Amino acid sequence: MSKYVRKEKSQRKHPVISSSSSIIKAPVNPAAIKGRPEWKGPGFVKKTARQPSGPALSSSASTGPHIQENRLPSELQQLLLNIFRTTFPICQDYETLKPMLTEIKKALDARDFERAFGSLDSMEVYAARWSPSRALCYAAVLAELCEEFGEETCIQILLKREPINTNRSSESSSNVARSANAVCFGGGAAEIMAFGALLRYLYPDSDMMTTQSVSVSGSTSPFSGLGSSPPSPLLDLHLVDAASWAAAISSLESGLTTPPTLSKYASASARANNAAFICPYTLKTSFQQCDILHADQDELGSMIGKQPALITLFFTLNDFLASNVAKTTAFFLKLSNAAPKNSLLLIIDNLDATSEIILGKDDQVKEKTAYPMHYLLDMVLTEKQISAAADQKPAWEKLLGDHSRHFRIPEVLKYPIGLENLKFQVYLYKKL
Q1: Residue 158: enclosing H or E segment and its boundaries?
Q2: Taking the CB of residue 29, how many other CB atoms lie within 10 A of it?
Q3: Are 348 and 401 in contact (CB under 8 A)?
């Protein structure tokens, strides 16, 4: 039998890999897949984290608080604090005030406002302790408001940029400036001092105002040309609160419009330069004791008046919401009908947990949801969350919404009781 010879066509189909140095490498085994295979691959789309139910805060809340710009000079702020100190000399003895301050704080935490402000002494102690810091904060916000929203009607009136024609007689007419109108719901000691500081900031030359020749931005003040008749006030300030702040407000107004008492040893130059913080004719103040949650639309209309007004709620809305959400919502609806066109609504409130409201039925606790304060404001005022008819327009336009601001007290300021930095949220709406 002849020897078997392998033919070329019978050679091995695949070469034998004899060592790791061969030019033909074995395929690399894929790494073990972690997790379930159906969760990976080019067609997989990762699910985003589920967001909590309820309205979310805007980006301004996540980027951290904004520092409130303070345009008021330190000298002006110190003069304001001096008025607090002279009006309420009880602030000089802080140790004596501690027991009463403790009781007031307990009453405020329990939202027992009748006990907190039940006497004149308690109101003066509260004003001496907490109002100075708030007054400085409010004044800073108001000054920024005049700078940033000077084109708004009620701000233009305050800046005396919008005189109106009034027939003073049948034979002649002259330009007479109307007073700016401000209404502070929940207003007290801090509000009158804040607006007093704003007037001093806008019109620093009080001596010129007494001669009826104020010049603002190069224009002649409407005080001129009125002869010997007293000029119209720059600001008509109406304060409304459930507590009787009339005595404290009257004392502070006197401190704003009366030159400070000098020592009998004061120099002649000091006596010659001694002047009131603001001219008496620049500010007209009135106070009304009223629980506005129980006021009807006509009563609110009489408080605000017929011309565009700056309406404020400073550290008041939280208390309303904690008291009764339904009545607070009804108040805003009545306010929307009572406020004249082009009025401004300025709201400042704190940042603690009570700034959230709870909506839902009392007998269904599981359906209660906490909503940020600005959500209710937008829902009621601008109707963003209400399915309105196509031809129905919102009552207000939101001009400003900042959920977190910090106001820092200048370190150079001196006051017998420690001043506090404030954290707050601020919103501004315009009546359409």
Answers
A1: helix 153-158
A2: 6
A3: no
Q: Is 220 helix (H, G, I), strand (E, B) or coil?
A: strand
Q: What is the mean pLDDT of residues 124-139?
A: 96
Q: What local confidence, expressed as pLDDT, does residue 386 receive?
A: 52
CA angle at residue 286 from 196 to 177, to 5 degrees? 65
Cβ-contact 393, 431 below 8 angstroms: no
Please list the residues that pair with 98 across neighbouring strands.
Answer: none
Write the DSSP string, 276-322: -SS-GGGEEEEEEE--GGG--HHHHHHHH-SS--EEEEES-HHHHHH
Predicted confidence at residue 406, as pLDDT, reads 96
| C-alpha to C-alpha distance for 99 and 101, rounded to whole angstroms | 5
Q: What is the H or E stretch that residue 360 is in?
A: none
pLDDT for position 162? 58
Strands 344-350 and 422-431: antiparallel
Burial (0-12, 13-18, 19+ Cβ within 10 Å), 407: buried
- Structure-block tokens of residue 105: 């704080």
**Token digits of residue 378:** 């937008």
Fold of 61-167+174-262+277-431: Rossmann fold (3.40.50)
Q: Looking at per-residue confidence, does 304 or 11 come out higher?
A: 304
Enumerate the domain spans of the chain. 61-167+174-262+277-431
**Chain segment 59-88, per-residue pLDDT in tens:** 344 456 799 999 999 999 999 999 999 999
Per-residue buried b or exposed e for 74-91, using 16+ beta carbons within 10 Å of the residue's own CB: eebbeebbebbbebbebb
Give 200's contacts (C-beta < 8 A, 6+ positions apart).
Answer: 76, 79, 206, 277, 278
- The token pair at 349 is 């409130």
Helix ranges restricted to H, 22-119: 59-62, 74-87, 94-109, 113-116
Is 363's pLDDT higher than 90? no
φ, ψ at 430 (rounded to 5°)? -120, 130
pLDDT at site 230 = 63
Torsion-angle region of 111 (φ positive above 0: left; ψ -120 to 50: alpha; else: beta): left
Give the closest residue to 343 by CA, choosing from 153, 192, 185. Answer: 153
